[in-house]
Amino acid sequence: MKKPLALRGALLVLPLLWSPVSRVDAQAARASPPPDELFRTMTSLDSALFDAFNRCDLEKFSSFSVDDVDRFHHPKAEDTEPVGEAKFVHLWQNKDGAWKITRVLSYDHHAVSR
After folding, report:
1. Where are the chain's structural domains?
2. Which of 41, 54, 73, 114 is 20 to 30 Å apart from 85, CA to CA?
């Protein structure tokens, strides 16, 4: 005896309806700071980083990065004049309770307009 078509369709749709409700965690949940606290932390660190750079405080500037920081530069970065500007993306990671830059991406290198 064949099952009615409506019952067969319901049995096929039921798993699809259940899947959005079920939850699977691939990684253990970690406590993270609220978004506003994280934003304030990153803003403060970013300001301190560029303040150290602008003051040529190399010791302070290097303290924000891990020793083996990965640097990625736009292919034409070497073609620019020594005095120029660029845009940067810094990847900050919280390692052992301290925020450190682990990767730097620079792009849009160009000479300073005068």
Report:
1. 33-111
2. 41
